[in-house]
Write a structure and sequence with these properties.
Blueprint: E1 6-9, H1 17-27, E2 31-32, E3 35-41, E4 53-55, H2 72-87, E5 93-96, H3 101-106, H4 114-122, E6 128-132, E7 137-142, H5 150-153, H6 156-172, E8 180-184, H7 199-213, E9 217-222, H8 230-233, E10 238-243, H9 244-254, E11 260-264, E12 270-273, H10 290-308
Parallel strand pairs: 1-3, 1-5, 3-4, 5-12, 7-10, 8-9, 8-10
Antiparallel strand pairs: 2-3, 6-7, 6-11, 11-12
Helix pairs in contact: 1-10, 6-7
């Protein structure tokens, strides 16, 4: 039985990340299953649980709700420490508190977000962001780019590659022997036979056909406006959507407090709460740690499933 610790990084110190990390740590009694929990970050941030903290060398000087790029070194170091421990087999999984992209960008951080940074640290060509709960699992093909750029970034190859990463993870990490995948269209009514857009016929449908030819259970392209109601969700195990809000709006509507961000395609297990830094309530004892608890539980489940396989 894998008894390695699960590591929780502090995230942006001026946001609610440290609060929800500590809140979840205490709610779970410092462990989940056979895994002790360890916090990774500035020792001052986690002073209440100093014995369970892996400290960064870089320190932070910040006030709640007032982010500073001067703290970026500590934020990224915490992630690097945790990833290295997971790669070395010294930790079972990584759970990350939210970071703030603008703060890191101001310090020269060269990645759009956690997902791309983790892919670089673990040496994989591409990682995939999934939002998951017991009601819905969804992956946006195109993530953090302006909406106007989305159509130009949708390719058949990208859809196939992303779908195959999803299907492999549904089996390996979620224990679904024969996963079923739904693929959303880009345009209203999935293009309505080309009247409302041509991407479905020219790009998405050929990718779906190629996946089916490989023996995968895939349906689509489907109209996004009828893809997420109760009956529709019984027909698949996960959805590949074409862009960020097309997938994240439904899951955050259905599972705002227990949705989990999962990075697929990595050699390590990584999860995160599905919310941001919430500077407006940081330091006010208003932060809700339920999503962090859900992220820790999912990380433990995934780590144990990988260890048993």
């Amino acid at each position: 039985m894998n008894k390695a610790p699960i590591l929780i990084t502090m995230g942006e110190p001026a946001g609610i990340g440290p609060e929800v990390a500590l809140g979840a740590f205490k709610a779970l009694g410092g462990k989940i299953g056979n895994h002790p929990l360890k916090l990774v970050g500035d020792v001052g941030i986690f002073a209440a649980e100093k014995a369970a903290t892996i400290p960064t060398k870089a320190r932070v000087q910040t006030a709640p709700g007032k982010p500073s790029s001067a703290n970026a070194a500590a934020v990224t170091e915490a992630i690097e420490i945790a990833v290295a421990a997971c790669l070395a087999g010294e930790a079972a999984a990584l759970v990350t508190a939210p970071i703030h992209k603008a703060v890191l960008a101001g310090a020269g951080f060269g990645f759009p977000g956690h997902t791309e940074f983790l892919a670089s640290l673990t040496g994989v060509k591409r990682a995939v962001m999934m939002l998951a709960s017991d009601k819905l699992r969804v992956v946006p093909l195109v993530i953090h780019v302006p909406l106007a750029r989305v159509p130009s970034l949708i390719t058949s190859a990208g859809i196939e590659e992303t779908a195959e990463i999803m299907l492999a993870s549904l089996t390996r990490d979620f224990g679904i022997a024969k996963p079923r995948l739904a693929v959303a269209g880009l345009n209203p009514h999935a293009g309505e036979d080309g009247v409302l857009g041509g991407e479905e016929e020219a790009i998405i449908a050929p990718a779906v056909a190629a996946l089916k030819a490989k023996g995968f259970s895939v349906i689509g392209p489907l109209s996004a406006d009828t893809l997420f109601h109760d009956e529709a969700r019984k027909q698949y195990d996960a959805v590949l959507t074409m862009y960020h809000d097309q997938g994240l709006i439904p899951i955050k509507t259905l599972s705002f407090w227990d949705g989990v961000n999962v990075t697929l395609g990595l050699p390590i297990v990584r999860t995160s709460p599905d919310h941001g830094t919430a500077f407006d309530i940081a330091g006010q004892a208003k932060a809700d740690h339920r999503s962090m608890v859900a992220a820790i539980k999912m990380a433990a489940d995934m780590a144990d499933r990988r260890a048993a396989s």
